[in-house]
Amino acid sequence: MKVKLDKEERRIERTAGSYRPVSKKELREIEGVLDRIRKTKNVNIRISEMVLEELKKRSREEGIPYQTLISSVLHKFVTNRLVDEKAIRKSMQLLSSGR
Length: 99
Hints:
The chain has 99 residues and is mainly α. It contains five helices and no strands. 64% of the residues lie in helices and 0% in strands.
């Protein structure tokens, strides 16, 4: 039976020769990081009804559960990857106008 690969799988197949084996020490370190990433804790927070409804609306638009959206936003915040789209657009406009 022939299996059809998606774009990411084809990329992996194409670049498989460039991967290098890792040492046992590196493997333990990688597994330790993955273990910490996979661990979750339950947190109870108070949040305004209006904010919760907006989060639920956005999560429906994104097609993900609202709790997953909240977790993703918090993760992006703590890893300094949460960006203000309006600020970026304004900066882009300023740059393109030559100011």
